[in-house]
């Protein structure tokens, strides 16, 4: 993600084309996780589905090496992300089921994904100081292969063959005002991240930062996320879901304003990147717990898929496209001001409607 927009820029695509292609990564999250989550709930074979998604996603990604034009690359990205985006939501469910009643320590497991991100981003940034950005697909392909191989190291599940909960119960959960507020808050959160995931690297490059520095700055944000994951279970004991959410959303608002206005000031930019602990770490850990509380009684896979699709998918795609128009018409600074507006609305939604989730036994009241 940190370097793909730079690769697309090097290929000669316009900012709107870059925004559309980057939005594709999020767009398939609207459909793919729901399909795979439903299959996981119905069959109980989530590990097998993860293996399938990882393998076929890697094969589809190889189409990038043909260096297709815009529409060809769009089809390649739609294909590989449909399978790739199936992996993480299913893994979230597998992880929480494995933790059982100790699910508050989810963050300590999830942090290893962040460790992998930090190592890869920093390493790729260093490599790209020596080789052209056009080599990026050759660097990424071994990572996809590694995901596929590691998926076969996870023991197969022995879960139930099908979900025992009905569609009426799922619909009752989705109609709950607190659940509506939760999804709307996260939708706006991901809209605000559209500029970050699509244009942050380009924004930094325009302000004179090199590829290695860009990698370090991305990594710094995730290092802060790791630190938060380690202590997140303590925050859950001291503060309510609503308090954590509102505080994290306001810190995210501050982050986007600082990036929009003070990117040239390294100390300020470093502080803004540390706030990734709030804008992603705290809110994602909180959201996984929220999904487990409301959807854990038989609709866990579908709940996780809806979270991924309606927020990361729809929100991320809308945010990427809107930021593309702002960058094309005004500049990258304006895109981050747009992010600030979106997150301010998200904070308002959380303040008005977010409530603590119940214990994960389904929502029957």
Automatic annotation (TrEMBL):
The chain crosses the membrane at residues 12-37, 49-66, 72-91, 111-130, 136-156, 177-200, 212-232, 304-322, 334-354. Residues 178-365 form the Major facilitator superfamily (MFS) profile domain. It comes from Marinobacter xestospongiae. Its main location: membrane. InterPro entries: HcaT-like (IPR026032), MFS_assoc_dom (IPR024989), MFS_dom (IPR020846), MFS_trans_sf (IPR036259). It is found in: Cell inner membrane. Keywords: Cell inner membrane, Cell membrane, Membrane, Transmembrane, Transmembrane helix, Transport. It comes from the Bacteria. This is MFS transporter. Gene3D superfamilies: MFS general substrate transporter like domains (1.20.1250.20). It is a multi-pass membrane protein. PROSITE patterns: MFS (PS50850). SUPFAM superfamilies: MFS general substrate transporter.
